[in-house]
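Before relying on records like the one below, remember that each one covers exactly one chain. Contacts with other chains, cofactors or solvent are not represented anywhere in the record.
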Amino acid sequence: MKWPTPSRSRFPQLRAPGFTSSENGGVTIFAVIAFSMLIVLIGLIMDVGRVMNVHSQASSYADRVALAVATELDNRPNALTRGVTAAQGGPSEVQAGFRITLSGDSTVGVAKLTFMSSLGPDPENPYTRSPVAGDVITATWTPVGGLVYAAGMTDVVADRETGFVLVDTTDETENYLFFPLLGALAPGMETSATVAPQAIAGFERQVCNAPPLMMCNLNEATQGSGAPFNPTPGQMIRSKMQGAGAGWGPGVFGILDAPNGHGASAVREYMARVTPNTFCTKGTVDVKPGQSTGPVSQGMNVRFDMYDGPMNGDRNDANYAPAANVTKGLRNNCNGNKSNSSTPMPRDNCFMPSGAWPNGIASGAGTGCVNYGGVGRGGDGNWNRDDYWSSNHAGRPQPPGYSSMSRYQVYRYEIEHPEMVDTSQEDGAPSCSNSTPISDATRDRRVIPIAVINCIQNAALLNGSANDVPVEAYAEAFLTEPVGNTDWWNANNDDVFLEIIGIVRPNLQQSVLKEYPVLYR
């Protein structure tokens, strides 16, 4: 059987497609375009990232330099010179990291330091270059020109008034790798970027748990306005007094506003507590008007195991514990009666009152004190050690080196050796309070920090209600006798006598003084 031949008309004829009608490879064109755009985008990201990386490292360097310099701006001599030295001491290498560079420069440096005494308001535009309106410049430094002081400014004044530094870094230029490739499409395309960050830091000072007492810088009386405070260990200071010439200045009697509130009761509370746990003060203080006679003695004398007035109810509260050694020439009956068998620590000879000191210690000449405003406020460091020892430690040998010991050293010796005062009428240990006395030298109740103010330099703003008065330094001082309990040896009531130990050192573990740099812009 023969099969029929299929007709050609029943099957369509297949033809090869033409070039213009082919759809093969259409996606490839878009892929190439997208890939090219992706490469360009990655390149741009790399260029921008490299610049941001360098800017970040340069900014970090500027911050480190500013903080290092600000640490030295403590208003003491050679502060600016020390700041310049600190600015040159840090590492300046820009780490390789993401820096694929054509510029060849791998370091960043300090182009300029601008020292300032105060800062104006921050500009609304954060990209505004400093200094801005209100910034008060005291000096500038450049690697070539060195330290140059502002018109009318001396090195001494600049050291004392400068509290801020502006750091300008050297220009750092990064050449782009990919941006130039777009030059054909955008002729104005940049080929490099330059960064030059700035940083401003300042010096901050805070003191915590310090009783609200002050004294004027006696060095100003002998060396002139703005003289640095150079304490003399062992010198006695009458920081607060009554009678003629009682004020350090108009209305300034040596009392400050307590950080935990205003008024006499706040002063009493702050002076009495072991740890006030209130606000830390800034680098300035507020002067309290008036004498606050009762509250000052009631608060401060808690440290001597004396609980008068409102403090009587706190005698057994550990928050108001006394010192371990409260020798003061008073009997142990807690009534403040004079002891006939012991004596308080004598004052510097120039402060000794007329007549005999308790228990027969001879009075001093009454002359030789350092005058401030025509009144003796600073002692000469000489006091009657021999009579104190023979009265309070009869029959016992003096310790080695006793002839040159300060009152504070004798006091600590009595605590740390079995030499506490023990007479028929007075024991050196507290007897009125049941609280555990504090013997730790780092928390000694009779050692206090006291604000030292350049009263002559700040005379224009210093008065009985002055606020934000700059503090020159904080002196570490020893309370030698109770406050306001001295009438029985013919002294003016409510005088506060202190013996200088030295300057309060900042940032120690137990230090009440904290000094640190802070970034501002």
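Residues 146 and 497 are 47 Å apart (CA to CA).
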